[in-house]
Amino acid sequence: MGMRFGLLLLLLSLAGGCAPLEQVWWPSSRTRGEGTVTAPREYSSEDASLAAKIKANTPPRRAASLRLTEEGRKLLDSGHYQKALTRMEQALAIDSSNQYVYYFLGKAHFHLTKYRQSVEFLDVAESLLSSQAFWLGEVYNLKGKNYQELGLLEPAHRSYTAALRLNPKNREAAIGLSRVQRELKVPTVR
């Protein structure tokens, strides 16, 4: 297993052309807390690929970790949650500074109904992705879903609200917020 994993990492770091890192955010920005968060443009399927974040000068460990994270994301999308979790753990072991892996570890734990573990990974993702509005919005949305599953409606309300502040078009966050508001009997603002 160890030799096969090492070979896999070598192949992943050498495989395929490295796509240039594409700009994901508009240059306009607004201040959030101490840092600056840029406003997201429309999110496309091209942006979804973490492999697109690999440049020609990306260190091999980082590139391998991003590729494994992308494989894990695809496994999550296809409903293979335990396999995805394993892939994400491998990506984290290779490069613990890969900020995206923490979000996807949170997502894998959410789907495996390990809500508290999910929130712990999302807390790390929140700090590492604080300057990327799209990803930060996704973190808040997933935190809201976790809190809702745990019956923690006030934190769920705050998380969904933060997600919608960053991306008013986030349909999942809007639906989650509406459900939480009904449960809390909070009037909606229109």
Mean pLDDT: 81
What distance lies between the first and last C-alpha atoms, to the nearest angstrom?
Answer: 56 Å
Radius of gyration: 17 Å
Main sheet, how many strands, which sense, barrel? Answer: 2 strands, antiparallel
What is the strand content?
5-15%
Number of helices: 9
Described by the principal axes of the CA atoms, the overall outline is: elongated
Structural class comes to mainly alpha
Uncertain runs are 1-46
| Strands, count | 2
Describe this structure in words.
The relative contact order is 0.10. The chain contains nine helices and two strands, in the order H-E-E-H-H-H-H-H-H-H-H. It has 190 residues and is mainly alpha-helical. It is elongated, with a radius of gyration of 17 Å. Strands 1-2 form a two-stranded antiparallel sheet. The longest helix is centred in the middle third of the chain and has 18 residues.
Descriptors:
64% helix; two-stranded antiparallel sheet; 9 helices; 2 strands; 190 residues
Secondary structure blueprint with pairings:
Blueprint: H1 2-14, E1 25-32, E2 35-40, H2 45-48, H3 60-77, H4 81-94, H5 99-111, H6 115-128, H7 133-149, H8 153-166, H9 171-184
Antiparallel strand pairs: 1-2
